[in-house]
Amino acid sequence: MGGVPQFCMGILFTDPDTGYAAAVSGQVVGTTDGGQTWSNVVGEPFDAIIGDLALVDGALIIVGRYGDVYRAPLECPAVADVPEVLELGGTLCTGTAAGIQWSLNGNPLVGETQSCITPSLPGSYTVVTTDALGCVSQPSDPVMVISTQTAEASKSGFRVAPNPGNGLFTLTFDEAASREVLVHDLLGRAIGTFRAQGKRLELDLQEQPPGLYLLRSPEGGEAVRLIKN
Hints:
The chain has 229 residues and is mainly β. The protein has one helix and 21 strands. The chain folds into three domains: 8-73; 86-145, no CATH class; 150-228, Immunoglobulin-like, CATH 2.60.40. A hairpin with a 7-residue loop joins β3 and β4. The longest helix is centred in the last third of the chain and has 7 residues, at 150-156. The radius of gyration is 27 Å and the shape is rod-shaped.
């Protein structure tokens, strides 16, 4: 086959049309027409003498004479990656530099495509990344954020008692109005929606497991933490 390097140390095909060939220098060329034409895929690394190559989970692995191993992603892996999220002083960050999309409670946040964000609303935050090959990751493990303004909001919004409690709670509002109260668990999943018609609302969470919950009133933007024993 014309077009492959003169000192070709390894060649493989992933299907009848797509193949890769590695030169002794580490240069890799590829074909998508069964070997009729070849084009450069990976440039040669510095001072490398290549012995063989293999395709492992979408990445080309090239082994050098001196024990060097080079890895070049060429296809999407069979199992998508899961990005990590670090919480640093109220800021959420992921190590991926490009192709980022943050979501709140499973809904993509418009314009939140940078490596770090500062959450402005309580809820469950996740991130999905897309690499240069167009491979989309799985969502990261959710990070539950409880707004730092929760305490101030609860003074002018609503209060809950007892807190902690065993499952029966009373919500008290400063103003009588019809409003929704949403209950989320620690992972940000909505587990119940309640409707308040006045200044009080009786909340029954006896069937829910013990733990931390977040109460939100979308109309007023208030949020309160609740602990069920």
